[in-house]
Amino acid sequence: MSNRLTHLDPLGRARMVDVTPKEPTHRRAVARGRVHMTAETTALVARGAIAKGDVLAVARVAGIQAAKKTADLIPLCHPLLVGSVLVNFQIGDTWIEVEVTVDTVGPTGVEMEAMTGASTALLTIYDMCKSSDRAMVISEVTLWEKTGGRSGTYRREDTNEDIDDLTAVVPDDDDYDGFDRTLDPEASGEL
Amino acid sequence: MSNRLTHLDPLGRARMVDVTPKEPTHRRAVARGRVHMTAETTALVARGAIAKGDVLAVARVAGIQAAKKTADLIPLCHPLLVGSVLVNFQIGDTWIEVEVTVDTVGPTGVEMEAMTGASTALLTIYDMCKSSDRAMVISEVTLWEKTGGRSGTYRREDTNEDIDDLTAVVPDDDDYDGFDRTLDPEASGEL
Amino acid sequence: MSNRLTHLDPLGRARMVDVTPKEPTHRRAVARGRVHMTAETTALVARGAIAKGDVLAVARVAGIQAAKKTADLIPLCHPLLVGSVLVNFQIGDTWIEVEVTVDTVGPTGVEMEAMTGASTALLTIYDMCKSSDRAMVISEVTLWEKTGGRSGTYRREDTNEDIDDLTAVVPDDDDYDGFDRTLDPEASGEL
Amino acid sequence: MSNRLTHLDPLGRARMVDVTPKEPTHRRAVARGRVHMTAETTALVARGAIAKGDVLAVARVAGIQAAKKTADLIPLCHPLLVGSVLVNFQIGDTWIEVEVTVDTVGPTGVEMEAMTGASTALLTIYDMCKSSDRAMVISEVTLWEKTGGRSGTYRREDTNEDIDDLTAVVPDDDDYDGFDRTLDPEASGEL
Amino acid sequence: MSNRLTHLDPLGRARMVDVTPKEPTHRRAVARGRVHMTAETTALVARGAIAKGDVLAVARVAGIQAAKKTADLIPLCHPLLVGSVLVNFQIGDTWIEVEVTVDTVGPTGVEMEAMTGASTALLTIYDMCKSSDRAMVISEVTLWEKTGGRSGTYRREDTNEDIDDLTAVVPDDDDYDGFDRTLDPEASGEL
Amino acid sequence: MSNRLTHLDPLGRARMVDVTPKEPTHRRAVARGRVHMTAETTALVARGAIAKGDVLAVARVAGIQAAKKTADLIPLCHPLLVGSVLVNFQIGDTWIEVEVTVDTVGPTGVEMEAMTGASTALLTIYDMCKSSDRAMVISEVTLWEKTGGRSGTYRREDTNEDIDDLTAVVPDDDDYDGFDRTLDPEASGEL
After folding, report:
1. Which residues contact A5 (CB under 8 A, 6 or more apart)?
2. Which residues, at least 6 apart from A149, have a Cβ–Cβ distance to it below 8 Å?
3. Residues in C touching B16 (Cβ below 8 Å)
4. Is there a contact between E84 and C17 if contact means CB atoms under 8 Å apart?
5. What are the φ/ψ torsions at residue C95 (nearest 5 degrees)?
């Protein structure tokens, strides 16, 4: 990890890092995040999901499209051609989790595409549920995995001692599954 | 609060709610969110903020521009003409908080513009800091205040009993300032 | 009907017609169109529609978003704030029909928003089905109804003697329902 | 031809197909479509075409620009870098035909770019002529040719037995030129 | 004229000025600019203009579309609904001049829409001529007139003593017509 | 230099030049331009630059983002993936100069990306200063250097005899530094 911000030049001015010397390689990034809501609102989404699936279907489309326009949203992000975007959801008792996986062949990574796709999918769920629940919270949006590129593979560990507040963000409720995807699908409704 | 999702019709199909019968009125929404990072990364941003401010200056522009293109990102969101967007930051020890305030005169509220502006500003900080810190987490993105429109004023309460996980998200550390803006500006560096 | 093209000035140069003197009024436009495909492909979509509905759910989102960005696509089209967009589908034996209804309060009509929404929804169905059927044809995209504005209400008649080719476009098969929406919903699967 | 829709995963959820394993090759697609209108409106466009050409010049620009933003309009369409877009028109007695040819070097085909370019060019003609003729119909938008890629060359046949309605769409008037471009240019006004 | 920059708050942070308290009124802005080029290149454009007009027709469309997306390009610019955009050209011996007029009814002016439209039309001419002439210069892009709004009417004077370099920008050739549109149309080819 | 415009086909119709046969190579373009303003306004920007730098920080972001969306603004411009965008400023007594450098690896040059980035950065400065100074002029926007590609390296000479008006645009004031960057940085404030 660098101890300086590569998006600032030595005088502190914003810049796009030059990626032209880098060889195109296969790269993947996985991001996850959650929107917390009341049990009643979660149930409304879940029922829709079972019947026609439109809240999550709309959020899936929004996440895919946002991943494609990441460079238009994040000023210093390089444009690239995403080769694949997958958006999946898990429904808990009082939250919906999104996981976005982005693949590309290119000279730069796709973390921001995955993060932007996840954030936008969560904002879309928020938008569609806000008439029912104004106190929703979007949380725990983070990079889960990154492969390809010079810096090699990164996988998020479950605990991160360096970030004090993070321990607050991750509840220590015994039933909490973190981002564990081995949850009983009957209970959590993978969609 | 409604017990159904107005973005779905009675058959569960996605739709834009019709706002044409609504009179234009002045509306405001305030959203907040945080990106958690190591103390080292926070310090890098803070130092930049004192010198040239480019990380936060770029994130501010990104937040403003994203608020303007909300309807392009969130599928069922109505287009509207934002009249004002303010983006401010607070720097903590291991987090940066953004607050986005959006005003408009129109037939529909600006919650999504504020939420989208806040999310995009946080993603931009994430992008500019990820070479230094890959384990950052975007969290606690939520609507803080909403005024105008038929449903009247909404202000988020500090505790929300209905959302179990939220109590987990809000740490009960005594020093935690929540979104309290009365923080000592010397200590937290309002920017 | 005018016998000149208002988007050209007297010297034949393209221009946006000035709408600033016009009062905002409530306006609506309805457009319809079809994509013709093999019975096998239609069945694949219909099965999806019954199970999870994703082809049509994606096409619905695409139609809504395209209606919102009409002025970005059609060069001389005025920007306006759509107040509502509805996208519905009917499934026939060898076609899927889309109907897009757009409402606004503004100084100019929303025909192009409805037409653009319909075309884009059909293109999206085409995209999602092209691995199964390359010979699909998008057809009969037309304005069905227009209300509001100085020129009053327009409703398309079933036969239009002025357009010779149109009689070719509308098959005289007895079972053909045109755009008649009184079709037996059991048979045609309104979605 | 596949008997499943590759844009849906086995559970029926929308997805972008992963193109990262595919080698970039040269690819081309040609799409055509028509807008039918009264003879009077056609003549207005044709006169303009002779004098300054602005209706078709604007439609040509709109078609090119739409081809470039296809991935922003069609949710599951991959972004790619179009290398060339050509937009040509033929004027008949009561219709204008557009032909859009798109070339690229990339891992995925450009059918959707050609189809989207053709649709948008036709919508633009519709927009510029609608003050004169509200009953116009956009029709017969279809893929005419596709080369490159693993699935090899595809050329549309003049008759397609599999699509019943298509025989209705294609008039059996003896003079009908289909999309034959060998028409007498004096008569049909290739532009 | 203010002696501070209203787009910065008292702490020097960028902001969108709040326009929600302002009443919508009719507003107009006119901007002009030139691209200087060799006499040979100018003649190529002029010949095209006489025959089919495509360089200027494309530049006109580009100027209109850019005016519509000004708020997407200029970060602190308010979104507004342009009611009319006119783009005209004059051809000199070694330059092409563009004039863009934008009208709206709204709470804020359209200077930036006119300026952005003019700049983009000039960039488009540059793009289409650069294979013939790489030394072209875009110059003298400025606001010519502004009406409506609280600050009243502004019209640029031919000489502006306050801007020293401007006297350099405006050549003192006797034949120079400035932006005078009474030029002999035979000589300068108004298009 | 060609004596025809490659963006027009032999019949004078606009087209995108086909770049698919060209090999990707490393390419760079540098464009510069100025906005002239009163000494008072220049001082306001310069003071801001010293304190927080927000006018130029916002203009830098706008220039970078515009470079990324060049193909969306300039109709016949090919989409490409910019690999790096640098935006720098110099402050004179009565002007601010921008220099934009764009790098890519691709089959076509990045002149238009550099020119569009420079124009948009200047428009953004104009927007942020217009409350203080309405008579600002954007001038001397031109390509300064171009490397890579079949046509080899191009560097602008200080004097260009072929463009008559250019001698007018370049003042012969002895103090004028043209685009010379060897200016005393104390005096001109490179940022």
Report:
1. B44, B45, B48, B55, B128, B129, B131, B132
2. A25, A27, A108, A109
3. 64, 82, 84-86
4. yes
5. -160, 160
pLDDT level of residue D23 (50, 70, 90 thresholds): confident
The CA distance from D82 to D26, in Å, is: 11
Using an 8 Å CB-CB cutoff, list chain F residues near B58. Answer: 57, 61
Angle, in degrees to the nearest 10, between helices B54-68 and B39-51: 90
Structure tokens at F156: 């602008």
- Looking at residue A94, its pLDDT comes to 96
Band (F6; pLDDT cuts 50, 70, 90)? confident
Task: Tell whether D15 lies on the interface with C, counting CB pairs under 8 A.
Answer: no
Assign residue D52 a region: left if phi > 0, alpha if psi is -120 to 50, beta otherwise?
A: alpha
CB contact, 8 Å: D16 with chain E? Answer: no
Q: What is the pTM of this model?
A: 0.85
Contact list in C for residue B80 (CB cut-off 8 A) is 81
Mutate to test the interface with A, among F72, F77, F85 (most CBs of A within 10 A): F85
E chain contacts of residue D61, beta-carbon cutoff 8 Å: 57-58, 61-62
pLDDT value at residue F125: 96
Candidate ranges D143-157, F48-62, F131-145; pick with highest mean pLDDT: F131-145
**Cβ atoms < 10 Å from Cβ of C171:** 16
Pick the catalytic residue: E9, E54, E93, E127? E127
**Min CA distance, B191 vs chain A (Å)?**
17
Which chain B residues contact residue F54 at CB under 8 A? 53, 57
Strand partners, F154: F146
Q: Nearest residue of F to residue E45 by CA position?
A: F5
Residue from C33, C50, C36 nearest C93 by CA: C36
Angle at alpha carbon of residue D118, lines to D112 and D120, rounded to 5°: 100
Give the contacts of C186 (CB within 8 A, at least 6 positions apart): none
Please identify among residues 71-110 of chain A the ones whose CB lies closer than 8 Å to any CB of chain B. 73-77, 93-95
Lowest mean pLDDT segment, chosen from B172-176, C148-152, F26-30:
B172-176
Asked if E93 is an active-site residue, the reply is: no
- Give the residue with greater pLDDT, B13 vs F40: F40
**What DSSP line would sit under D126-146, residue for residue?**
HHHHTTT-TT-EEEEEEEEEE
End-to-end Cα spacing for chain F: 36
- Out of 3.30.70.640, 3.40.50.300, 3.40.50.360, 3.90.930.12, the CATH code matching F25-153 is 3.30.70.640
Rounded to whole angstroms, how far apart are CA atoms B167 and A169? 9
Confidence (pLDDT) at B73: 98
Subunits next to E (3 or more Cβ pairs <8 Å) are B, C, D, F
Chains touching B (3+ CB pairs < 8 Å): A, C, E, F
Residues of D with catalytic function: 127
Does the pLDDT of residue C94 top 60, yes or no? yes
CB-CB under 8 Å, C127 with D74 = yes
Which residues of chain E neighbour C81 with C-beta distances below 8 Å?
81
Q: How far is B81 from chain A (nearest CA, A)?
A: 18
Stretch B31-42: mean pLDDT, rounded? 96
Q: What would the two tokens of residue F10 be? A: 């032999």
- Asked if B87 and B117 count as a contact pair (C-beta separation under 8 A), the reply is yes
Mean pLDDT value across chain B = 80
C132–chain D Cβ distance below 8 A for any pair: yes
Q: Do E54 and F14 touch (CB under 8 A)?
A: yes
Average pLDDT over residues F72-99: 95
The β-bridge relationship of strands C84-91 and B137-147 is unpaired
- What is the ipTM metric for this complex? 0.82
Mean pLDDT of E20-44: 93
